[in-house]
Amino acid sequence: MAFKNQLFIDGKWVDPVLKGTFENKNPSNDSVLCNVANGTKEDIEIAVAAARRCLESENWGYKSTGAQRAVILRKLGEIISSRQEEIAQLDSIDQGKPMREARADLADSIAACSHFADLAEKQDQHQNEVIDNGTEGAFITTIVLEPIGVIGAITPWNYPFLMSIWKVIPCIAAGCTMVLKPSELAPLSSLLLGELCFEAGLPAGALNVVTGLGPDAGAPLSNHTGIDKLSFTGSQATGSRIMAAAAAGPRAVSMELGGKSPLIVFEDADINGAVDWIITGILWNSGQVCSATSRVLVHSSIREALLARLVDRVKEIKIGDQQSAEFLEHKGPSMGPVVSKPQFDKIWAAIDEAKAEGHKLLFGGDRASVAHLGAGYYIPPTIFVDTPTTSKVWNEEIFGPVLCIREFSTEEEAVRVANDSEYGLAGAVFSADAARCDRIARNLRVGILWKNCCQPAFIQAPWGGVKRSGFGRELGRWGMEEFTAVKQVTGCASGYSWELY
Length: 501
Hints:
- By secondary structure, the chain is an alpha/beta fold.
- The protein is built from 16 helices and 22 strands.
- Helix 5 (160-174) packs parallel to helix 6.
- The model has no long low-confidence stretch (mean pLDDT 97).
């Protein structure tokens, strides 16, 4: 498979101005997968200028209609569909995830093209809507929906293609233009997305993809005064720096900053079903999921039965290189490596610290168990039990396959402990009592709540958190609204005057 080492700006592949590159490592074996173009401030300047020209052109931005954008989005969906196996393989190689997970990302990406095409067409139906302004015809007020402008988007590495889709597709639907800076840890499929959008008919300059290291490309994008809105998914630390840069503008910002999501299992829950969802919530994508339900609260009366079932199930999971013949043919549950050596070291440091502090280890946490896999960044599923609520491993986002479990006795205790977090992205509750599930849904301070399931995300439904998990929403009509400016246009009836002067 050939890899691009250029930037995609203004509808064409170009070398970075300073000709720099950086190494992109294969997480499965620590080898150099390829060299990637390292964009810098100079490339960001060119990309933002191209995006601005396109926004103000005759065939995009303010002059385009939802119907025109919908045609491009549906064509893009067809192109992605025709190449989905290639793109899934690219993400699996670049990021390390199993092919079945990468294929699921592609299915969601194709669905997003269709859904936002529908929303773009519906936006036309609401253009120039007349609202009742209470003046009985003295003034006529209409509402015009316009693209918010040039978007600066910075995406994470855990879902390389899908997270770019989550930002690019509603941006196109709203008529905006974008400079996209994907994570340097898994940038390859986002570069391809730029080319696919152009092939689908998106005008040159509407989507520009600038790869590069954070200080070299991300910081200049965040600080650029030609950006009208910043959209970011990633860590709190980087989000804070982007907020500071945006405040100097000031510019609009939307952010999704991860979480430490709780999952509550009551005594009347189906234990086998709950265990299936617990595993999904912490081991999908090797635990590198912003909404990972990494804090499990289980009712004391079913604690032992749930833990026994959980260990039995986790033992079934195979770990290894997801592009090897063994795993390409494997039909059962599997895990790949984490994305990078720094992430690998960070997760092991959290595990080692928790063990050194004396926290009880139920499963995993042993480097020797994955040593036979070689130089890749492999971490076994790791489960701590009776974890103190004051510990770092209980409170801090680890972003890996590390689960903490505590027991509780009452509903009030479960809610209190679940809410005792600076994060508020997601949560889950398992119970046969529908009324209790509804109470938990109301009482947990999160942006997403699952009842008797965990982690489903739908293109049609809003995604985002509260508290320090961020603000703004992606997906559904709420995601498109993040890229839409609402303009009031008011006219005065002929001959009417306030006669104030």
